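As the next step, I needed to go through one protein, both as residues and as discrete backbone shape codes, included below for the reader:
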Amino acid sequence: MKEVPEFAVPEGFRSGFAVLWGKPNVGKSTLLNRLVGEKIAIVSPKPQTTRNRIVGVVETENAQVVLLDTPGVHHPQHKLGEYLVAEARAALETADVVLFMVDATEPPTPDDERAAELLNSLLRDAPRPVLLVINKIDAVSPAVLQERKLLYETLGNYDETVTISALTGEGVPLLLRKIIDRLPEGPPYYPLGTLTDQPEKLPIAEAIREAVLHYTHEEVPHAVAVVVDELEHRSDRLAYVRATIFVEKESQKGIIIGHGGQMLKKIGMRARQDIERWLGKKVFLELWVKVAKNWRKDENALRRFGYFVRR
């Protein structure tokens, strides 16, 4: 995988894996998208929106950083929760540097403490450099930021603390330099110009899920899975996508479809915009909604929807 054709590696070129770590909804996906410059990970105000481990690739003249975006670490309450935590642990095993992200708008919570404890435990036998990344500094005063910084630094032993706003980009170039400084020297892992190694259907499914999360109420979001049943590139200018939105209850199906199908129409319009930008062409999007009862607790259903729980 390290062989990249027609590329002369400059002396001192660095490459490696950086893992985004932390509780749900601290801005990991927003930072990934800020660094990569494309909307790779699903971004939503609802916690636990990142389900599949996302790989984004950042390139500079002298480095390639492969970013793994993990689901927010939490106590699993169902099979899907077990999958999310297992994915976070698996990502950590490949890390050259870890970015422990926290939220400047609040002091450390029990979820932050659990994430820190798990990180400290997993790195005890295989130490890796960890940067404490305090996000959302655009939303707090300097005095509050300093107070929160001191509190978060008590959660572990960190190489360095970096304060950023993933939303505005403040502090992100400095963070990237500090990540690169901690990577080993070596050729790139991916061909130059790579944004992500996700299968083509995955970003489409995630775009649809994000649209569902954007419009539906709290009852629905984490009971939603999306399967892209068909993707056909009909020409250089047009693609056909047929996808199924799975929920756990008939009532959730009704919410997503909406009165006269209006909610599903809004979801489709929002998702189509992201899919068209991803594919670089017009998209005809056909959406269906089906009920798969209690799928989050069913390992067979999880596998059918593209998840795999490591044992």
